[in-house]
Amino acid sequence: MAFSRLLIALVLSILSLQVVARALGRQPHELIKPYKRAALQDIVTWDQYSMSVHGKRIFFYSGEVHPFRLPVPGLYLDIFQKIKALGYTGVSFYIDWALLEGQQGTFTAEGVFALEPFFDAASQAGLYLLARPGPYINAETSGGGFPGWLQRTEEIYRTPAYVKYTDNYASNVGAILAKAQITNGGPIILLQIENEYSDALNGITFPNKNAGIVIPFLNNDIAPEGWFTPGNITGSVDIYGHDDYPMGFNCMVPSTWPVNSLPSNFRELHDLESPTTPFAIIENQGGSSDAWGGPGYGTCAAWFNEEAERVIYKNDFILGTAIINMYMTYGGTNWGNLGFPGIYTSYDYGAVIAEDRTIFREKYSEAKLDANFVMASGDVYLTAVPTESAVNGTMVSTDSLAVAPLKSGSTGFYVVRHSDYTSQESTKYRLTVPTSQGNIDIPQLSSTLTLNGRDSKIHVTDYNVGGTNMLYSSAEIFTWKAYDSYKVLILYGGPGETHEAAFATASNGKILEGSGVTIKPTSGSLQLNWAVTSGRKVIQIGTELFVYLLERYTNRDDAYNYWVLDLPSPSPVNNFHDPSNTAVIVQADYLLHTATIQGSTLALIGDINATTAIEVVGYPSSVTGVSFNQFGPSTAKNSWGVLGGLATYTAPTISLPVFTDLVWKVIDSLPEARPDYDDSNWVNADHTKSTNPFPFVTPTSLYGSDYGFNTGNLVYRGHFTANGNEDNAGTFSVSCTGGLAFGFSVWLDDTFLGSWAGDALIESNQQTLTLPALTAGQKVNLTVLVDTMGFEEAAPIGSNAMKTPRGIMNYGLSGHANTDVTWKITGNLGGEEYVDKTRGPLNEGGLYAERNGYHLPNPPSGPWEESKPFDSLFGAGVYFYTTSFDLNIPAGYDVPLSFEFERTAADASATQNYRCQLYVHGYQFGKFINNIGPQYSFPVPEGVLNYSGVNYIALSLWSLSSAGSAVESLQLISTATIQSGFETVALSPQPTWIARPGAY
Ligand code: IPT
């Protein structure tokens, strides 16, 4: 099946390439042959096992982060340090073309859209980067990253004929990326071409090596289908990779995991498809996106939780994976209309780092345990190969469990999980595995091991702990490090489990802390057997090995509170992971950002949310003291040399504004529905032709993008002269398309005719609305306000979905031919020649207040009326509110803030349907739909908010019901109060309002 599909694709692609080559008189964009590219540089190399950087094998263990979903470059470092602290070595990022070439031919990547600050922060944190510039990215972005003007092109997307439209973007972004490659001293070591290009219509084309990209090219096949593998004559990449989302995207019921979803044949496919490249999972599930009306990200995080990580990530390791990227690791925000209609403002994704940048989710800590294990296992893991796939009942005493072995030299890794990975059973088992001392039946000193529910464990044999052979361990390895005169090994287990480890040593062991460990010297080894309890146990074996036996997670003594921090390496590696360099092991609490040695002090920078004892359990002998932020240095040591100190938490006084107490100013943002409104400056919607493949049926096209309006609210004005034939109870019927959860409202002069208030599952709707009495000869103005929710994505290859138009699709007016109505249209002021270059092409839509820039700081609201969004609106309409307040958050604290609407009885009964857009310093950071939800809380990052000074906010309130509406409640709340050693966060640019020439 896969083979025949490949064959067909091969034939198709050869045909299509020849056709294009002939048409252009040259090869289409150059197809890359790995054997040609391999010579381009020698810093990043690879073989069948792994990549190497500067000649050392490295696991590219990456978290996906989208710079465009956090428009505060001053916070990139915070996110990166939280990822580095997980033990990851890299970050993968998409670039959203739609935001950088909003106007065709004009590429701009400045201010919050500049990529260099992202690269600089990655270098500072020490994370290598995988660049994924598309041009097609998907990523739940409007158009999947395609700019709106691409709707007006005839060519089929992602096929050879369309490629010319990408040239400007490709050459500009290619040049930016080329400069930041590792070969030029930057952090970028890999580049993915296109996204899920799982077809051969085009050959993979972007960006070609003319842009100066010399690092390895990757692809991201939608599944292990074998597209563009090295040596494939349809064109190939250097390192073949694919997606893996075993849990799918339905997080409605947290406990419901899809059955039989764990991949079982990935390694076999890899060995067939791409045996010369490392096993690479370019997107490995880290959570899920959530749609309008969905369960919310708290539920998605509870569904793809720490248990899912344990089972799925360990199943990845057993494939011999050496390149992996967790999608998402920090999701961020779909601010400023950048999302596609299938999602709302938050892109939290239920990821390990929440949208407000906090790391309270248990899955963050679990991800740290998982990553550290493979990092600690170094080349031994990276050169290990699976010897067979998971087989139920082999090597274990029960068919309920499956064990998959991975071998590297004498070392064995045995991944145990329930045969049915969704099983919630608690299963007792014994494991029988080969070791250098023969087959051993584990445990020896007690009866059974236990696998509790949705869990998976990696048991090891003949595992080298810095020169001591650990013969086996049923407890899992968090990390180990060797220092000048001693070694530290940290093992952990789940609550209530019994574990056993044995070391091939003649030395004896003694308990330094804790109790309940049986230590038994036998011929050739020393066995430890213990029941996992809260509170650690520390065993010294011989003079130099210190073994910490921890519980995974119950209290602050457990594995979740241990951190392994790289110490800086000599140039050129610097802060990037150097597998041969040492690292410190520290027990702290909430987060450690960095560790450096200054003189003889280990200087830790970290975050705490409670007074915390800091213990440095592994450090080089040059260190005699430890400091934490402003505390210390402390030189206190315990009996076996652990360095300790106390980090004291002092609760700050945080005062936040009470919105109901502030003075708010208001302006009518729908003057169009007033009789005297003059729309003479508007664009005439008079195109009689459109290249859009969805043919329009109205006399002229009313598609927003045919007039350059690609984002947010669209407003139409329809003019006709009453002829007396409209009848009593005649109608105006109108159908609109805006994408899922969109809505629209219609007025005839100042009479409200009706609305479609939206539905999470409906993207187009028709309303037939009753006309008021009209007098023949009367000049009539219709106003139609349509909320658009972004463009559809453009997957799979060749799909026209992204061209699905937005706006009015059709209409009918009693007593009239459609040609009797002439139309005008507006969206954001200037359309693709958008005004606000700071906040980009998608941030503002077509509301009157937006066109005039009143959402920006310091609007000319002096003469406006005073009124609060909490006061009831009478009838349908759009009102625009602004206010300002001071924030004075004390320095040294990280206090994420969130704007919270309230879910009220009125929302539930949906008699008062309204839509709000929340602007903070002009950045649109929330689109709230009270009758759809599910997002009620809108985090806004420091940097968009000014934490020590004045803040301007604005709120549009569109009431879709004749009953009118008011915002029931809006509060600014803090979602954490972290005492932080992190540097001051620089403000993102916040240019203030100036009168806009030509604004209407
Ligand atoms: C994968 C896309 O590559 C990525 O851009 C994003 O959209 C992700 O899905 C879902 O969040 S496609 C994969 C589900 C086949």
From TrEMBL:
UniProt GO molecular function: beta-galactosidase activity
Assigned EC number: 3.2.1.23
InterPro entries recorded: Betagal_dom2, Betagal_dom2_sf, BetaGal_dom3, BetaGal_dom3_sf, BetaGal_jelly_roll_dom, Galactose-bd-like_sf, GH, Gly_Hdrlase_35_cat
Reactions mediated catalytically: Hydrolysis of terminal non-reducing beta-D-galactose residues in beta-D-galactosides
Position of the signal peptide: 1-21
PANTHER family: BETA-GALACTOSIDASE RELATED
Name the UniProt record assigns to this protein: Beta-galactosidase
Provenance organism: Lepraria neglecta
